[in-house]
């Protein structure tokens, strides 16, 4: 039987982003940090946490500054070959990304299509437009081809496996 655990879903993508962020900071290009949701620990055994729960809904995964531009983004992975399920982005995350844009920042999603081995940066404005179109058509996912067209393929850069910052500057301009 196939495991339904989501515990490590997106872990590889996060590792690539964290490595890129460390390189950007070392080079003085950006300071971007991963936000972890606050956890209330309710159980210990042998000095190890055995039980707990999230105290609140998590904010988008990453926030920071890139050359005086405030950035905020969430990283998502899907095994689907044909589309990105919009339920992968929670309402509170959409709200936070929108607020960031409204305040003059740049927000986006980094979406990894595992089966295609491709990762795209989808600006929030493009994602929001896709959401509206999905609601009108009463569909629950964004077609892969739409993300290819409206997003920016993220490739490797100079000693960076996933150079999201270059893609961000290209779509931001």
UniProtKB/TrEMBL annotation:
Record site feature (Transition state stabilizer), residues: 76
Domain of life: Bacteria
Record flagged with keyword Manganese: no
Cofactor binding description: Binds 1 Mg(2+) ion per subunit.
Pfam families cross-referenced by the UniProt entry: RecU
Gene3D superfamilies cross-referenced by the UniProt entry: 3.40.1350.10
Subcellular location: Cytoplasm
Enzyme class, broadest EC rank: hydrolase
InterPro entries: Resolv_RecU (IPR004612), Restrct_endonuc-II-like (IPR011335), tRNA_endonuc-like_dom_sf (IPR011856)
Cofactor(s) this protein requires: Mg(2+)
Catalysed reactions listed for this entry: Endonucleolytic cleavage at a junction such as a reciprocal single-stranded crossover between two homologous DNA duplexes (Holliday junction)
EC number: 3.1.21.10
Record keywords, A-Z: Cytoplasm, DNA damage, DNA recombination, DNA repair, Endonuclease, Hydrolase, Magnesium, Metal-binding, Nuclease
Positions with a binding annotation for Mg(2+): 61, 74, 93
Known function: Endonuclease that resolves Holliday junction intermediates in genetic recombination. Cleaves mobile four-strand junctions by introducing symmetrical nicks in paired strands. Promotes annealing of linear ssDNA with homologous dsDNA. Required for DNA repair, homologous recombination and chromosome segregation.
Family: Belongs to the RecU family.
Protein name per UniProt: Holliday junction resolvase RecU
């Amino acid at each position: 039987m196939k495991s339904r655990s989501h515990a490590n879903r997106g872990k590889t993508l996060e590792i690539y982003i964290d490595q890129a962020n460390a390189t950007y900071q070392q080079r003085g290009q950006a300071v971007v940090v991963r936000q972890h949701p606050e956890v209330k620990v309710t159980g210990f055994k042998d000095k190890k946490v055995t039980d707990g729960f999230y105290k609140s809904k998590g904010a988008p995964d990453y926030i920071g500054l890139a050359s005086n531009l405030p950035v905020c983004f969430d990283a998502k992975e899907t095994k689907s070959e044909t589309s990105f399920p919009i339920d992968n982005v929670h309402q509170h995350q959409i709200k936070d990304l929108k607020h960031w844009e409204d305040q003059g920042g740049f927000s986006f999603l980094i979406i990894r299509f595992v089966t295609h081995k491709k990762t795209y940066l989808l600006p929030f404005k493009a994602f929001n437009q896709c959401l509206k179109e999905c609601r009108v058509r009463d569909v629950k996912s964004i077609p892969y081809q739409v993300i290819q067209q409206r997003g920016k393929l993220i490739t490797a850069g100079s000693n960076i496996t996933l150079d999201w910052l270059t893609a961000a500057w290209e779509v931001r301009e």
